[in-house]
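Protein modeling request. Please complete all fields; requests missing the sequence field cannot be processed.
Requester role: graduate student
Desired output: 3D structure, token encoding
Chains: 1
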Amino acid sequence: MIRMRFVTKGILFTALILFCIAARPATVRGQQADQGKTSYTIPEYNAFQAANAEKDPTARLKLLDDFAAKFPSSTLNQYVYALYYQTYLQLKNYPKTIEYVDKLTGLGDAADLGARLSAFSNRVQVFPLVFNPKAPDAHDQLVKERDAAKQGADLLQKYPKPADSKLTDDQFAEQKKPGIALFYAAAGFADLQLKDFPAAIDAFKTALANDPKDAVSAYRLGVAYLSQTPPQSLDGFWYLARAINLKIQGDAQIKDYLRKQIINYEQPQCESLADQQLNELLTLAGTTGDRPATYTIPSVADLQKIAGASTMLTVFSDLGAGGDKAKLTWLALCGAQFPSVAGKIIEVKQGDGFIDFMVFFSASEDEMQKATTANMDVKVWTAAPPAGAPNAAQETPQPDAARLAKDDGILFSGAIVAYDPSPLVLHWDQVKVDPSVIPEKADAGKHRKPAPKQ
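Delivered output (454 residues):
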């Protein structure tokens, strides 16, 4: 799994803050005074206002500590805790930020809804900056973070539209969506670290439903799918591709990770084909958010089944058909070894240390003998290939094969490494010609052997 190193959103999430402006003590005091319900003393009020007015964060903390020591049970504590965590946030002391957020939200209904929402939003944003998965209490930290995120989401979903708002209900609900996405993304992050993958999947899907352009949630959703037992590979591939299309930070690393996951899932003989599939996936995932039911990638078991049932006749038939059939067959057979292939040599092309035998294959002996056009290119090394040649280590030079000529029959084993679709021509490498079809040196050129039967 790629290390989780993406912060969900920027600190101070503006869309959420629109809904989360806590009432200030002065305003509350005025309202309470009008109703004859003032619940704090003038010394408390003045002490808090002195801290609130202090510009230097270190000095402000000293004033807040003095307030907490003198008035530990003050009804102003929701404002005191808010000022505490905002000050620690200013100082980038994130553990203390979380500590005082938890104090504020722990007041429950004693703190107003806007103040708690603002606190929860700050908590879920700073948590990834301080979380250490190796900490002794890492599990407890994650549980608290997940619970805080869920509480924040619940509060925001229930947050009432202000009476003086000019927004319609739909507009108001729409403005909540980025904040809801923020909270569910945070819950998903915690669930992912807790290895509760079904919960993480649900959380990230909800986050994306509210913010479809959240690249980090798309990435983490893909990881959650791939981390399940057994993995939901196709969904995992899809959401990793979505994250790349959404320009996630580190997209090159994630693209390489996705390619390796596809290769591991299919285990194709020709890994280069994974690049084609990756590019197709990236194109498809850029046009829709959800994986279409029609999108699929064959597994290694699927490819092994195709390869096991293939013969030279089915290879020519399937590749010649084109379309998805040819694509699937080629994915299964690219690089596959065939032990005994027979044909008729149509042309001999001499290369530097190798010979390309242009060969015609057919199940019909009559067609084989009448053929004048090749449908196979069989490359045979007659000398040791240079070090840079493809599959050089797997090649065995056969200098005697040079005695084969036009119209001779040929019998060989080898690997199909490429094909031309139209006209269909198979390209063979790692070829070993059966010695029984190679003329003796003294007989070379004196006769023509018919194509051997398969």
